[in-house]
Amino acid sequence: MGNLRRLVLDVLKPLDPNIVTLVQVLADLEGVDGVNISIYEIDRRVENVKITIEGHNLRYDEIVAAIEENGGSVHSIDEVAAGMVLIEDVDTTQD
Questions:
Q1: Which of 46, 57, 35 is nearest to 11 (CA)?
Q2: Which of 3, 5, 40, 91 is the most exposed place for a label (fewest CB within 10 A)?
Q3: In a domain, 61, yes or no
Q4: Residue 92 lies inside a defined structural domain of this protein
Q5: How far apart are the C-alpha atoms of 72 and 31, rounded to whole Å?
Q6: Residue at 13 is within a domain
Q7: Could you list the pLDDT tens digit for every one of the 95 residues in the chain?
């Protein structure tokens, strides 16, 4: 399989654990170089968050398991990148 380098996930999580705890859990996984979590919606009991993870040979199943063990659920995979280098999106005239 290819070298999975970046995942952007839309996740629904409970308020506890907070995003500081969750980001540390994910950052400690093998192959992870960095994690960013942004909250974009808060309800009385849950938060919708965007999780961006970068690294080398990321293990999607382990990442999802860590999220689920902390009460979260992945709604969608919003971006994925693999290979030797990360390629950033480029604006085109259609954008």
A1: 46
A2: 91
A3: yes
A4: no
A5: 21
A6: yes
A7: 679 999 999 999 999 999 999 999 999 999 999 999 999 999 999 999 999 999 999 999 999 999 999 999 999 999 999 998 888 888 888 87
